[in-house]
Design a protein that fits this description.
GO terms for molecular function: transmembrane transporter activity. The protein is mainly α. The chain has helices at residues 3-25, 33-40, 46-81, 93-106, 111-134, 141-165, 171-178, 189-202, 206-212, 216-221, 226-248, 254-266, 270-294, 303-321.
Length: 323
């Protein structure tokens, strides 16, 4: 283990635990930390136990898992496109998921069906973007990026059409989902399973990703099977993005901010950046959701509003600094 790896884990693991504790303690009703600890020992009041264990804990775990998936997907996409400003949502994944989810809501289906429809939409967008970018020849990062932007614009037009023809009573739920909403996430454990499995499997490929980040020709000269590795990165990034979208809706900028900021702190070793991005993304989205629940309590903001307020200035700053 490198010194940077141990330093990243030493900083981000305690910060992860602290972010979850903050999410459990703060909201429309604040719970002091001594009372919070008594909940886990079975000594708290029934109100505090219900509030923490039944409401806030599943939501905090869902936000952390989704944020970790988005951070990990962003790190993978930046290696694939060899662009530190790349983001999984640039390729239209959230647009496809949003169309699927909105159609399920319009049909009056259950939240489980909405999540399933969002997952199918994200996978459909993945197949569409990759198929169009490949065309009759090979794809390049620039061609993939441009295809994703065009497909995302098409999904955006479909979203506008669905909102225009939807009943007025359905619009608030649809708009909240489009802006990111963790309040309906009640079963975070499948997302946690995906996050843990992908993070553990990605670690052994860190050295390969370091070589790939130098460019396809140099990677091929050093013995890396470039095309299969790029296919694998794209499919995995798409799958974990789709999983995150089904949990919390269309939340942007997490996959952009977290990997880039961690790269500035810990360097560009993917063996460090991948697990650090999973932890950093979880921390960011958990704290953002906590802020969304408390800033105008008892009303709640969509978590996507908070991440956008943080992400837009950071994106512009990074764009200004890059050449």
């Amino acid at each position: 283990m490198t010194r940077s790896f141990l330093l990243a884990l030493g900083v981000l693991l305690p910060a992860s635990v602290l972010s979850v504790l903050v999410a459990l303690a703060y909201g429309s009703v604040q719970i002091p930390f001594p009372d919070l600890l008594s909940v886990f020992f079975g000594e708290a009041s029934r109100l505090h136990s219900t509030l923490v264990l039944d409401l806030r804990l599943p939501r905090a775990l869902a936000a952390f898992a989704a944020g970790g998936l988005l951070g990990l997907a962003g790190a993978l996409m930046q290696v694939l496109l060899r662009n530190p400003l790349a983001d999984p949502y640039v390729l239209g994944l959230s647009g496809g998921a949003s169309v699927g989810a909105l159609l399920a809501m319009l049909a009056g289906l259950s939240m489980f069906s909405v999540s399933a429809a969002a997952f199918v939409g994200a996978l459909l967008s993945t197949i569409l973007v990759f198929g169009l970018a490949h065309g009759t020849g090979s794809w390049t990062p620039t061609r993939l990026l441009l295809t994703g932007v065009v497909v995302a614009a098409g999904w955006g037009a479909m979203i506008s059409f669905i909102l225009a023809v939807s009943p007025t009573a359905e619009l608030p739920g649809m708009l909240y989902w489009l802006m990111g909403d963790v309040s309906h996430a009640r079963n975070p454990y499948p997302a946690w399973g995906v996050l843990v499995v992908v993070a553990l499997l990605a670690l052994p490929f860190g050295r390969t990703l370091n070589v790939l980040a130098r460019g396809p020709m140099q990677a091929a000269a050093l013995g890396v099977a470039v095309r299969p590795v790029e296919w694998t990165i794209y499919v995995v990034a798409a799958l974990i993005t789709a999983t995150a979208v089904t949990q919390v809706g269309a939340v942007g900028f997490v996959g952009l901010i977290v990997p880039h900021m961690l790269r500035l702190i810990f360097g560009n070793d993917q063996r460090v950046i991948l697990p650090a991005s999973a932890l950093g993304g979880g921390i960011l989205l958990t704290l953002a959701d906590t802020l969304a629940r408390t800033i105008i309590a008892p009303e709640q903001l969509p978590v996507g509003v908070i991440t956008a307020m943080l992400g837009v200035p950071v994106f512009l700053f990074l764009l200004y600094r890059s050449r």
